Amino acid sequence: MNDTALVTAPDDWADAFFDPGFEETFRALGKYDSTEADLDALCAKDFMTPGTRVLDVPCGFGRHTGPLTARGLHVTGIDASPHQIARARALHPGADFHQADMRNPPPGEFDVILNLWTSFGYLDTPEDDLAALTAWAGVLKPGGHLVMELTTRERAEHENRHGTEPISTKTVTYNGVTESAWYDWEAKHAHVTYTRPGWSATCRTRMYSRPELEDALHQAGFAVVSFAGDFTGGPVRPENRTVVTAITRSTP
Asked: Which has fewest Cβ within 10 Å: 21, 31, 121, 125?
């Protein structure tokens, strides 16, 4: 392997990544194709009914916040990116958006917190990630739910690791976008560079295994942690696109 080919995302990668080119690039990759089906499955849950107080963190350009608001839920979306918040407000003028770090959510109490689309593990350290989880637990009502949708380390290894190599790489091109990824299994980081004509950016995500995530959630104050393979409660399999985690905080 030629290590010089490995592009490392800087600590402040998110500031540049979520710019105007991000949405167009991910739309070309089909990343948003399942949005309506995902929302239908979410809203079929008995704790996601009209009037439910929901915090969507991070909300991006409002892909979930806007439609959920239109379905009658009381949703607040927060995101650290000023561009994403501006875009969300333009697309969904009737929804509630605020620029904020995920470790500093608005005061609750919320019935539900959504953390969707592998939007966890962005922060600099595991301690920062734990601080975010702890802050979310603090603004949920007793018995409230946190729903996380993310690619776990198990899926990343299933798709990209071919033995015991410390670093794995992958490059694919689809619809004019090249995705070049490398996975540092010891550091637990995935670095992915997306490139299309006129735009290129690199992101970094900390990979959590299901046991590691469960432990962090318990440390943050959540009492019950369960895993499913999709929003409908399907079985967990290593090849699943995502793993959905539903967590209930204990009643004081």
From this structure: 125
Are the CB atoms for 90 and 66 separated by under 8 Å? no
Domain-by-domain residue ranges, the chain? 30-151+208-249
User: Where residue 12 falls among pLDDT bands split at 50, 70, 90?
Assistant: confident
**What contacts 24+ positions apart, CB below 8 Å, involve 86-93?**
87/20, 87/23, 87/61, 87/62, 88/59, 88/60, 88/61, 88/62, 89/62, 91/61, 91/62, 91/66, 92/62, 92/65, 92/66
Mean pLDDT within 36-40: 96
Condensed to tens digits (0 to 9), the pLDDT of residues 145-198 reads 999 999 999 999 999 999 999 999 999 999 999 999 999 999 999 999 999 999
How big, in percent rounded to 5, are the helix, strand and coil portions of the chain? Answer: 30, 30, 40
Q: Which conformational region is residue 207 in: left (phi greater than 0), alpha (psi within -120 to 50 degrees), or beta?
A: beta
Q: Which pLDDT score is estimated for 1?
A: 44
DSSP state of 158: H
Q: What is d(CA 7, CA 156) in angstroms, rounded to the nearest whole number? A: 18
Q: Which CATH superfamily is domain 30-151+208-249 in?
A: Vaccinia Virus protein VP39 (3.40.50.150)
